[in-house]
Amino acid sequence: MPIVNMKDMLNHAYTHGYAVGAFDVVSLDFITGVMDAAERTKAPVILSLAESHFDYFDFELLMAAVEKAAKRASVPVAIHLDHGASLETAITSIRFGCNGVMVDASHHPLEQNIARTRAVRNMAQGCGIPVEGELGYVPGVEGEDAERHPGEISYTSVEEAKTFVERTEVDFLAVSIGTVHGRMKGTPKLDIDRLKDINAALSIPLVLHGGTGLADAQYASLIENGIAKINYYTALADTAGDCIDNNVKAQTRGYTGQVKGVANAIAQEAERCIKLWGSAGRADAVLEKSTPWNPVEHLIIYNTTNADPADDVGMITEGERVLSQIPGVRRIYTGTAVQENAGYKYTWLVQFCHKAVIDSYREHPDHVAFADTHFRPIAGDRVSIDYQT
Ligand code: 13P
Ligand 1 within 6 A of 234 CB? Predict the structure, then answer.
């Protein structure tokens, strides 16, 4: 069960003055390590997948493992798309199981950032999914030396943040107040006064990107001023890399020997962060205050008036193609009754990620066109019910 609504989770953190770790995962060792740390500390946690890492793993395959790890957890978990570059990636990530999405158009001028973020927000709203936007620019790439990506930091302005949040209606805002992504020399200088003003103006959970490399005391003042989600990757990647280095130096040969201990090293670093950021011991309270993230099964059983069963197959194939692309649809199963004398010969079972999709799917132009042209004219004899599982 413990996939929960990410908005409930972050609102709890924001109102109770702590931050949830959003750890980017790139392999099974990362998933295992982060989940072990969350279980050991009884903390809510966010498993994030960053689009900048998609060259290193198969997104769909890794998401299957992420979702399994989240479902079998005893602590509340949210699954987040980090730095989504397009509306298409956001839709795909929801299909694969993300229940929070970030659209990062922060490198575009304000109006374009607003338009791109708003488009993702409109789509995600129909899927019941909260959205994180970013305003101001946090340079660097997660997991790499910050010096290799020397783009200028562009600090978030309070006035623009108000406009941005009003016009995009994002649920969380990632701010730029002095951090960079990746490995850096020295500790960043943070503009806490700016953060304080942004927080006073917005009163929504704020997000810190570039969580690696801060002094312990810096996290406390960030959280005090509205940071409720801390994105963290490079330090986990470095600790995993060090572990592999040590195995190699110890003359260990072969893959399993060389990655031995990686999950545990990641768990130790994630546990240190979770304790430092105040989310340890919050799992039960978050579970109590959060809506569980349950899919809805949209079930249709029907007969058709087609004389030739080949026409039914054509209609079903077309439906699978069109309907599976609608935002919020996770899977479509179609079937034919096993018993020849069954009251209904065919079924559609369409899995929605959230009950909000019942309405957005019904009204989606592609659904309307398919239903009006291909389905309803021949399938008047049907029963349709939505089940929450
Ligand atoms: P670090 O790589 O600096 O930890 O930042 C991670 C991040 O912000 C991911 O979005």
Answer: yes
